[in-house]
Amino acid sequence: MSSSPTAGSRRTALDALHRSLGATMTDFAGWDMPLRYGSERDEHTAVRTRAGLFDLSHMGEITVSGPRAAALLDHALVGNIGGVKPGRARYTMICREDGGILDDLIVYRLADTEAGSSTYLVVANASNAQVVLDALVERSAGFDAEVRDDRDAYALLAVQGPESPGILASLTDADLDGLKYYAGLPGTVAGVPALIARTGYTGEDGFELFVKPEHAVELWQALTKAGEGAGLVPCGLSCRDTLRLEAGMPLYGHELSTALTPFDAGLGRVVKFEKEGDFVGRTALAAAAERAAAAPPRVLVGLVAEGRRVPRAGYPVVADGKVIGEVTSGAPSPTLGRPIAMAYVDAAHSAPGTAGVGVDIRGSHEPYEVVALPFYKRQK
């Protein structure tokens, strides 16, 4: 049975369709979203072995355009956005002046105009979309560029899993073989104009399709029909979380926060000090880079349970009777068949295979194996 709409929550263009499929709905960042349609494990396994279809219309799309759009984004974000070629995408972050992470983002560079104007699509997490929008507007002062809130202009569908290229190829003439990972191209899918991006949050090959909201139901139905023979199933947020956890992908509010810099999160590689000009947080991030190089702070590691008890965010990680870290995300892993977690732990206990590490689960110290991330990597 699907739950009734949550009062005050926003609904995606696919809301009625989710309810007709019997989805269990939940409030997520102010949106009513499908948590699951049936079995979370079955949905997870479908993405790992066949294909899954997701509604991601809660994500926050912000368009930045104009002659100085690249310069604005290079100033506002930590990455080298001016170096992104048209049709490509980049994973990056927006930080505060003190280096704390406001959000992690994917930025797509769309087509340039002959007049020298560039257009970028910035995709923020649903929970941070307004914060990112406000920061970009504030940081745009003095730049010949426009920052536009396009959250209502897009619905976002994702088809993920090893069968996804074949399913999508049956519905589009776009050159999917030539579409690299972290690239996007305009095309038509089942007659619907779309930005076709080869990105995802599952650890599998897959595509994210940005379309107008009025085309969302039509496209969902076309993908569902095209995927029937390939075992495609609708998937909710619950399996998306276990998929990204197995793939070692951070989730804002768990592995990332304003209390952490990219260097604290082990993602210092996204900060590009070599780019021209100043950027927000540069001084603080340079200091954070030096601290991390001199004496690594807590390190983000993987933990695999020896038993069956599932660790949850906030649980202490212990060794030799002392707290050495904290779990940031934890869940049963359908692929590994055991509970897994990501956790920040003291550097001295971060090496894979470190003995004597456990998680304090309601007073009981459960043994865990320290492993390198990710837990799962697909065969290419």
Structure description:
This protein is α+β, with helices and mostly antiparallel strands and 380 residues long. Helices cover 20% and strands 32% of the residues. The chain is built from eight helices and 20 strands. The chain has helices spanning 15-20, 40-49, 69-76, 129-139, 164-169, 216-226, 237-246, 282-294, and strands at 10-11, 24-28, 31-36, 51-55, 60-66, 89-95, 101-109, 118-124, 146-149, 155-160, 184-189, 192-197, 206-211, 232-234, 299-305, 316-319, 322-333, 338-345, 357-361, 364-371. The protein has a six-stranded mixed β-sheet with strand order 11-12-13-10-4-14, with helices on both faces. A six-stranded antiparallel beta barrel has the order 15-18-17-16-19-20. A hairpin with a 2-residue loop joins strand 19 (357-361) and strand 20. The longest helix has 13 residues, at 282-294. The radius of gyration is 21 Å and the shape is globular. The relative contact order is 0.14. The model has no long low-confidence stretch (mean pLDDT 96).
